[in-house]
Amino acid sequence: MRNRICLLVLLLTFLAGTDPALAQQSLDAMIARDIASLVETYKTLHAAPELSHYEEKTSSFFANQLQSLGYTVTERVGKYERPEWTSYGVVAVMKNGAGPTVLLRTELDALPVDEKTNLPYASKVKTKNDAGQEVSVMHACGHDIHITSMLGTAKMLSELKSEWRGTLVLLGQPAEEVIDGARAVLRDGLYERFPKPDFVIALHDSADLEAGKVGFTPGYAMASSTSVDIKIRGLGGHGARPETTKDPIVVAAQVILALQTIASRENWPLDPVVVTVGSIHGGTKHNIIPEEVDLQLTVRAYKEEVRKRVLASIERITKGIAIAAGIPDDRVPIIKFSETQVTSATYNEPQLTERLAAVFAKTLGQENVVKLPPVMMSEDFGYLSLDQKIPATLFTLGAVDPAKVKRSKETGTPLPSLHSALFAPLPEPTLRTGIKAMTAVVLELMKK
Ligand SMILES: [Zn+2]
Ligand SMILES: [Zn+2]
């Protein structure tokens, strides 16, 4: 009897290896077998989020799971610019003969958001942030979905080793939300200490797309982001004696309006640019003209040359308006382009992205695959491509209850976005689709 079962298993494995439809059925069956426990994993992670730079428990859970699946795991990968910070990056490697090296990436961190979903597994975590203030913490970007999808994918691929060849590298990246985690792991020799990938793949969940669907965006998909701090210095005095002052508030107002001409008048309209002044602080009282005003900006662009030109324009316009206002040379505005709060654009290598889209269509059905327009949001995934030297792509995983998407379209009421205290992915179909899509991608890129 036992021999017969063995023969049957062999026959099924053989058939699964030869017939794509059967292989898919068996992947569905494998996911169905594990989905309940994966949903539990997701809920556990969701209830225990950790802030960027503090992903200690999340990373060790992730590492242990991968180790038990047979991966060679290294913890605490990464070096931050501030050496006192520990990096909780995890790298898991599975070698399976000669073939391409594929890196899959998940983020590990959560956000300082006070969850308001009222779900039974909602986070109640409070902790101290870098500044020592108490904050609530929530997986409001869905990185818990990404971690769980990766664990599910890792399990499928460890069981399907006869279907692929090459080296699989799984990266648990810390500190994505503060955009210094990808650089930290690269600085610590991600591509020297571990096999350097031929392809880099990630997924990100979506707060607009239905669970069960995936999206792809060839080419530029997300913008670069640069934080800019401007200190406009004037000469303060009495609010009733403006003639004795150089009013930095009026200068700041002129600067803010003039900065809007960068996108509208200086830039080729088909090169997307955003210049947003997100914060302005100055003054203490109605009748005092202050000494200075502080502005905080974010700049978004796709192409590096456009980003550089926009930054130069910000400097020129700000200084020019200060000079026009008669601010003396020793009080010119101080403009700082952040070297830490900066990230490159996410460029989805078109050929690789189209190849993935074809795999998705085959695996999930064409009706569940959508081409999505690029956005001006940012993330640090682009660094892992080493400035587009390694083909990389980040695809979108639908995470919302389809009934909610339908209602939102009908009523015109927007759904809670990523980073919202109300963001609540629908775990089971989202994980099922994420694991199926990611496993299929690896089987395509590493097929025998
Ligand atoms: Zn986020
Ligand atoms: Zn995110």
Structure description:
- The protein is of the alpha+beta class.
- The chain is built from 11 helices and 18 strands.
- It has helices at 2-18, 20-47, 56-68, 143-159, 181-187, 190-193, 248-266, 304-324, 350-364, 402-411, 427-445, and strands spanning 72-77, 89-96, 101-107, 126-128, 134-136, 166-173, 199-210, 214-216, 219-222, 224-233, 237-238, 273-282, 288-289, 292-301, 334-343, 346-348, 369-371, 392-400.
- The strands form 5 sheets. Strands 1-2-6-3-7-18-8-17 form an 8-stranded mixed sheet, with helices on both faces. A 4-stranded antiparallel sheet has the order 12-14-10-15, covered by helices on one side.
- α2 packs across α4, α4 (143-159) packs across α11 and α7 packs antiparallel against α8.
- The radius of gyration is 25 Å and the shape is elongated.
- The protein starts with a helix and ends with a helix.
- The relative contact order is 0.17.
- One zinc ion binds next to loops.
